[in-house]
Design goal:
- The protein is α+β, with helices and mostly antiparallel strands.
- It has one domain: HIT family, subunit A.
- It has a 5-stranded antiparallel sheet, covered by helices on one side.
- It is globular.
- The structure holds adenosine monophosphate and zinc ion.
- Zinc ion (ZN) binds next to helix 1.
- Adenosine monophosphate binds next to loops.
């Protein structure tokens, strides 16, 4: 296992910090967030310590997302929620606090008023979109 001794999620994996485990296998762990956005807010992590999306190898990412799907269906059925957001923060600017790659499953109910990803926004001009494409695609 790849491990960082100072990482809080690595400590959760080795059980030196307790957590409420929903699912565990040899490679991945899903546990309840202790500062939940909503009831059942869950964190899914690989047991190997990777800082972010760019570090985790594709095969481990695929396996992790199978667990994200499994746990999401479990939460949807058992907690009878109306929906859920899958959220994954990378780097401080995006709100990443724990530098061990993780996926949030955030249960939602209709009209819970928590957050919507359709933040106030205005339609982009076609030239702005073209400009971004040129920068990204070269
Ligand atoms: P992020 O902002 O994407 O880095 O999210 C880190 C998440 O980890 C936050 O939602 C925290 O509430 C959660 N968290 C931090 N420490 C613990 C812990 N000991 N047990 C469970 N969840 C934690
Ligand atoms: Zn870690």
């Amino acid at each position: 296992m790849i491990k960082d001794d100072k990482c809080i999620f690595c400590k959760i994996i080795e059980k030196s910090i307790p957590s409420k485990v929903l699912f565990e296998n040899d490679k991945n762990l899903a546990f309840l967030d202790i500062f939940p956005v909503s009831k059942g807010h869950t964190i899914v992590i690989p047991k190997n310590h990777y800082k972010n999306l760019e570090e985790i190898p594709n095969n481990e990412l695929s396996e992790l997302f199978e667990i994200v799907k499994k746990v999401s269906i479990l939460i949807h059925k058992k907690l009878k929620v109306d929906g859920y957001n899958i959220l994954q923060n990378n780097f401080r600017a995006a709100g990443q606090v724990v530098n061990h790659f993780h996926v949030h499953i955030i249960p939602r109910s209709n009209e819970d008023g928590k957050f919507k990803l359709f933040i106030p926004k205005k339609q982009a001009k076609e030239e702005e979109l073209n400009q971004i494409l040129r920068v990204i695609n070269g």
